[in-house]
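Following the same procedure, backbone shapes were mapped to integers, as reproduced here:
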Amino acid sequence: MARAFVGIGANLGDPVARVRGAAAALAALPQTRLVASSSLYRTAPVGHAAQDDFVNAACLLETALPPRELLERLHAIEAAAGRERPFRDAPRTLDLDLLLYGGETIAEPGLEVPHPRLHERAFALAPVIELDPGCVIPGRGPAREWLARARDQRVEKL
């Protein structure tokens, strides 16, 4: 079983309900156990700023699913929630990111672990650190150090 961190975000419809529903969907994945879910956070959009704030969280899973299969299942949960991808950083009904998978570093077409922008994004770092205060991002170092560098990004615990 690998420990995997999944980032969750939404800013369309009822984002709180969508994030909570996503956590429930993760708990229902085969060969997977939901270990913990973070608090919910209200965060400013990154990239395309002309949109509503996001609600973000993270879940810690123990899973026997290989990384590619886990990512495919995350995409299926997004699709079931009506996720569309009209452009990068667009508003979304649901966004699920495979942030970390064990201590692995994976660089394959369509699959990068750790998530390539995890270390830059307070909205992902804060919930991960809540779940694992000693979290280390492979190839980057302690997540807490990266969060300290992203203090200019608005992240409010709900």
Summary: The helical segments are 15-27, 67-80, 122-131, 143-149. Residues 2-157 form a domain with the Alpha-Beta Plaits fold (CATH 3.30.70.560).
